[in-house]
Design a protein that fits this description.
13 helices; disordered N terminus; alpha/beta; 461 residues; globular; 8 strands; single chain; 8-stranded parallel beta sheet
Length: 461
């Protein structure tokens, strides 16, 4: 099933065009429990989604009336109280392994059935899987990466983290993820970078994509236990990273990555109630846009009742054949057109939390391990547009013309995203696809060392 045009997430795959990521870590930090940062769950106990939905609709007024907001939510914020514009990168494929970011890990299993972290834990020998994961955690990102991110003129990192305790029957491998998260926040602190902690995969899966940990159905919203576990992880993250040892590096907690509102009419109201159940006076809060237009959130969690709330929107133009068929100029125009939407319809601090310079879906495993690309017609049901060879790889093969396109596309998007509250590029590094790598873009010169520098100041007209 094609996702809504223009609103897809990166790394599309298998049956539904998406990306992998996951988690397993039980965030049981040593710090003692604090006062509640969220209200006890207001969701009904039923496991049946239609009953959950009906109950929510019936009691929505009573539920919202029952929410007692702390005084911290009492006044509207001036523009950007938390700081200047965000210019950041995602630390993708680190705590949450993704086949297209580190294809070697999945290829080395020798098993084509290993397509996400669920199947990695399910089919790979436990001892071997734990060793591979720990080796990955110890080497894929280091303090040197965070120093390089700072040197590139960036201000923030968005760290995808697993958002579930490992439950009975779940094969996820915990490894050393919790300690590596703490270490990574320390690297950010040491380099003067601010951190968004992004709950990238919820128990039961919020979207059925491999980037939630398990390809298949989106069932997070159908069970009270899934919601309770998610809220508990938020509490543990807040308890840990409000500790003074981190120097205030963590600025924002994003409550869920890419909940797929288009999959079921029940996902939207349940997710919105989940958002409202989190009351947090220690960090800013980011809510995902459910693959909906920005103006669908006008009047929802806005000042003066709520403050310090960001709306996270993801923008890719590579996960449907009509998008891929656009000319270079049409790609620029599509990105630039977002500015008028921000000006006319936005009541939120909008941050574009994921985007890319790719104009193809050619990166290996981007659509899922073992799945081809629409660009060259190897994706089921697609048609041939062109060869993938010139448009992906480590970048040594990129023509000057293509690199000029990538630079223009960078400027078109960042200039537009900064008319909101800023951006996080997806992603800082990967093994093979330079068009998706901020660090490789710096090396090849199609991403500027100063992200505010413009070679094409009129790219948006």
């Amino acid at each position: 099933m094609e996702q809504p045009s223009g609103l897809q997430n990166a790394g599309q795959q298998q049956t539904d065009d998406t990306r992998p990521a996951v988690g397993t870590a039980a965030f049981r930090f040593r710090s003692p429990p604090s006062a509640h940062i969220f209200r006890p769950s207001l969701f009904p106990s039923s496991r049946h989604p239609s009953l959950v939905f009906a109950s929510l609709m019936k009691s929505a007024t009573a539920l919202l009336a029952a929410v007692v907001l702390p005084a911290v939510f009492g006044a509207a914020l001036p523009k950007r109280q938390l700081g200047s514009v965000i210019r950041g990168v995602n630390i993708g494929g680190f705590l949450l392994m993704e086949p297209w970011i580190t294809p070697s890990i999945f290829d080395n299993t020798g098993n084509p059935a290993v397509v996400d972290e669920w199947t990695f834990g399910q089919y790979v020998d436990r001892g071997q899987a734990e060793a591979v994961l720990d080796q990955h955690l110890n080497t894929f990102y280091t303090a040197a990466d965070f120093a390089a991110i700072k040197a590139a003129g960036l201000t923030h990192v968005r760290i995808p983290v697993p958002a579930y305790d490992v439950g009975s029957g779940e094969p996820y491998i915990q490894g050393n993820r919790v300690n590596k998260l703490k270490e990574a926040v320390g690297w950010a602190r040491d380099n003067g970078l601010k951190v968004w902690l992004d709950l990238h995969g919820l128990p039961g899966s919020q979207n059925g994509f491999d980037n939630s940990g398990r390809i298949g159905e989106a069932t997070w919203h159908t069970q009270q236990s899934n919601i309770d576990r998610s809220l508990a992880v938020i509490s543990r993250l807040a308890d840990e990273f409000s500790n003074s040892v981190y120097g205030g590096a963590v600025e924002t907690i994003e409550l869920v990555n890419e909940p797929a509102g288009f999959r079921s009419p029940e996902i939207d109201p349940i997710t919105r109630q989940y958002y409202q159940n989190v009351i947090n006076n220690r960090f800013a809060t980011a809510i995902a846009d459910l693959f909906e237009p920005i103006d669908n959130f006008n009047g929802f969690m806005t000042p003066p009742q709520y403050r310090d709330v960001y709306l996270d929107a993801h923008r890719y133009q590579v996960f449907s054949s009509p998008e891929l068929a656009r000319s270079d100029q049409q790609h620029f125009q599509t990105a630039c057109a977002e500015a008028s939407n921000l000006a006319a319809n936005n009541q939120h601090w909008v941050v574009f939390g994921e985007w890319t310079l790719a104009k193809t879906d050619c990166a290996r495993y981007l659509n899922g391990r073992g799945i081809g690309a629409r660009w060259d017609g190897t994706y089921p049901g697609s048609y041939y547009i062109d060869s993938c060879a010139p448009y992906t790889g480590n970048g040594d093969n990129f023509s000057d013309e293509y690199k000029a396109f990538l630079r223009q596309y960078f400027e078109a998007q960042t200039s537009t995203w900064e008319q909101g509250r800023g951006w996080f590029f997806w992603t800082w590094k990967n093994e093979e696809a330079a068009e998706w790598s901020y660090s490789r873009g710096l090396e090849l010169g199609f991403i500027p060392r100063n992200p505010a520098e413009r070679q094409y100041p009129n790219v948006c007209g």
